[in-house]
Structures are given as C-alpha cells and as structure tokens.
C-alpha cells in the first residue's frame, strides 16, 4: 500500500515507517522536523512540511493516491501544554483538521490516530479500559480527545474510517538497533535513567515517593515501541479489509504496572551487565502525575488480533540501552 505517515521522523512515527517499510509498503513521510530527525525518516520518502500548509497538503494528495494515513505529528509535552495551550490546540487540533479535510476531499478513508492515556485524566479505576470516562486534566490530553470526538463526526458525515490508539508509556527501540528515541529535551523515564547510566546526564531524579502505591513511586504501563507499531499496522489493515469501520478507539499497554523504583532497579540490572551504574536522587512530585496508569488492552487484542511481542520490561530496557550506547558512543 502507499501510505502517508505524518510525523514519521519522530520517535514513534519513525519506528512505524521502518516497520511498514519492512512489510513492503511504500511510505511518504510528512514531517516539519520541529522535533523529528531526517535520519530517522530514512525508511520512507521524506517531504519536509507542516500540516498548517494546506497548499502543500493539496499538492501531496493530488500527487499520490494514498490508501491510508497515520498521524503522529503532535506536540506531546504535558507541562508545556499547560503553559502554552494555544500551541497545543493549534497544532494538535486545527492542523489535524487540515489533514482530515484534505483526506475527505481526496476520498482517502483510512486514518490511524495517535491518542493517549492522558485523555482519561485522573483514573477512576485501573486497569483502564475503553469504557472509562475521558476527562483530561491538561490541554495536551484535551487536544487529543477533541480529535477523537471530531473523528466520530467525520465518520458519520464523510465516511472517514478511523482508529484512535491510546498509548500508555511508549518506550524501547528498534530491536535491531538501527533507530531509537531521541527527544530534546528528553522527559521520559527510561531514556533519562539510561542517560544517567551512560554518563550523558549526572543522575536520575525520582519525582516523589509519597504516592499511594506499594513503594510510594508512580506506576506506569510501559509498552515497547515495536508492539505499539504492530497495533497500528493491524488497525490499518482492519480498516482497509473492511473488518472494522466507523471511529474506533483502543487502549494500548501491557496491563502490567511498574513503579518508578522498579524501573530504576530493572535498568540498574541491565546496565550492570556492561559494567555501568547510575546515581539516583530524590525530588518533589511533578505536577499532574497520576499515581497509577495501567491499560486494559483486551479490546485491541480481541478486535485487532494484537499480541505484544516484547512485554517483558528487561527486554524493553535492553533495546533502549543498545540505542543509548550508540548515542553516547560507548560500549
Ligand atoms: N519520572 C521521574 N523522574 C524523571 C522522569 C519521570 O520520576 O526524571 C516519573 C514520572 O513522575 C512518572 C513516570 O516517571 O511517574 C513516567 O514518566 P514519563 O514522563 O516517562 O511518562 P508519563 O507517564 O508522565 O507520560 C506518558 C506520556 C505522555 C502522556 C502521559 C499520560 O509520555 O505523553 O503518559 O499521562 F501524556
């Protein structure tokens, strides 16, 4: 299939492009390179551009007959979204509407959307299934939920079929070590701990030990990037085959919660195999962090036939560590 991957030079998008390329699809990447990297998009044909540029979108859709579109090009920093909501609503909502409208005009009816656990807000129960109420507590989560709602209306009005995939904590790297995560600034737990081990930062700070969890640190559901991507590929195939239609939403996680302390311990064991260690410091709570976020992904397994291959935390960490060693030019 010929597919458009918007945001295909970013962390999740680039792994998606690589996986689709390995499956034999033809990929056009649209990315403004604001947070992505040209080298990461190398498994597709890169068009540097922005979703705000409607003329560019028209040209692109006139030039290529896309079977489907996947959209990864969002701003995704929760803290920044609180301070700069306009940036989040403009890019994540208004610009996404540009994309949906050009799809409708060109009769492209299959859309896969990166959504987030942040659409659920403070959980009422865990594991979180699709029936859980969606009441985001920050503009980032709100901007993603707006698109989820818009997609329902576009399905009814225009027959645009879509799947929203709500990620819990995406992590890990290409198991073959060719690409991986490189955010700047990096805010995510696993790469930060690994940077503390490689020497690219001096320590990892634990954001609070007074949560209502077994060891007092926050619990998250860490999902390997390859597994996340395989769910997208299955979702697209289900739409193309006509097995699924309308506007659907699935939660993606392993259903396993690990505390910040357990992740640090697991990283310490992995890096110790190579003779590395790291320093841990104590910090205050980070605003807006729920104590526990764990996914119930039963529906994705049942409806899409999704089966995670790398649910094991040490395996996730080993893949991310191999990539970090490359970035840090060690080992
Ligand atoms: N943490 C630390 N120290 C750090 C960084 C993180 O203790 O230096 C903790 C956080 O407080 C949190 C856990 O590690 O408890 C995981 O934090 P991440 O920043 O890696 O991930 P989040 O769970 O905050 O964020 C993820 C996605 C967001 C999404 C959010 C939903 O990355 O896009 O889940 O709440 F919005």
From TrEMBL:
Its EC number is 5.1.3.2. Gene3D superfamilies: NAD(P)-binding Rossmann-like Domain (3.40.50.720), UDP-galactose 4-epimerase, domain 1 (3.90.25.10). InterPro entries: Epimerase_deHydtase (IPR001509), NAD(P)-bd_dom_sf (IPR036291), UDP_G4E (IPR005886). The keyword Ribosomal protein does not apply. Keywords: Carbohydrate metabolism, Isomerase, NAD. Its cofactor is NAD(+). Residues 4-246 form the NAD-dependent epimerase/dehydratase domain. Signal peptide: none annotated. GO terms for biological process: galactose catabolic process via UDP-galactose, Leloir pathway. It catalyses: UDP-alpha-D-glucose = UDP-alpha-D-galactose. Pathway: Carbohydrate metabolism; galactose metabolism. It is an enzyme of class 5 (isomerase). Pfam families: Epimerase (PF01370). GO terms for molecular function: UDP-glucose 4-epimerase activity. Belongs to the NAD(P)-dependent epimerase/dehydratase family. Homodimer. This is UDP-glucose 4-epimerase. The gene is galE.
């Amino acid at each position: 299939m010929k597919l458009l991957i918007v945001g295909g030079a970013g962390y999740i998008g680039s792994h998606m492009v690589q996986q689709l390329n390995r499956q034999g699809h033809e990929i056009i990447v649209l990315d403004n390179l604001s947070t992505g990297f040209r080298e990461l998009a190398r498994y597709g044909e890169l068009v540097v551009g922005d979703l705000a540029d409607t003329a560019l979108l028209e040209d692109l859709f006139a030039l290529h007959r896309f079977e489907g579109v996947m959209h990864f090009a969002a701003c995704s920093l929760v803290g920044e979204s609180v301070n700069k909501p306009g940036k989040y609503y403009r890019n994540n909502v208004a610009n996404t509407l540009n994309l949906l409208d050009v799809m409708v005009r060109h009769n492209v009816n299959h859309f896969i959307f990166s959504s987030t656990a942040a659409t659920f807000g403070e959980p009422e129960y865990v594991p979180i299934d699709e029936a859980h109420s969606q009441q985001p507590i920050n503009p980032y989560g709100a901007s993603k939920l707006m698109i989820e709602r818009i997609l329902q209306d576009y399905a009814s009005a225009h027959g645009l079929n879509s799947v929203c995939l709500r990620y819990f904590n995406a992590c890990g790297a290409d198991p073959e070590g060719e690409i991986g995560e490189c955010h700047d600034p990096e805010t995510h737990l696993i790469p930060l701990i690994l940077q503390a081990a490689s020497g690219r930062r001096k320590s990892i700070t634990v954001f609070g030990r007074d949560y209502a969890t077994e060891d007092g640190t926050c619990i998250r559901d860490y999902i390997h990037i390859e597994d996340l991507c395989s769910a997208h590929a299955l979702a697209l195939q289900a739409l193309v085959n006509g097995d699924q239609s309308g506007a659907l939403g699935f939660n993606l996680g392993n259903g396993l919660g690990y505390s910040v302390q357990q992740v640090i311990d697991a990283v310490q064991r992995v890096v110790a195999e190579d003779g590395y260690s790291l320093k841990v410091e104590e910090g205050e709570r980070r605003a807006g962090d729920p104590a526990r976020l764990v996914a119930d992904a039963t529906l994705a397994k049942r409806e899409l036939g999704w089966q995670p291959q790398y649910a094991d935390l040490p395996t996730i960490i080993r893949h991310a560590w191999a990539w970090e060693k490359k970035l840090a030019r060690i080992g």
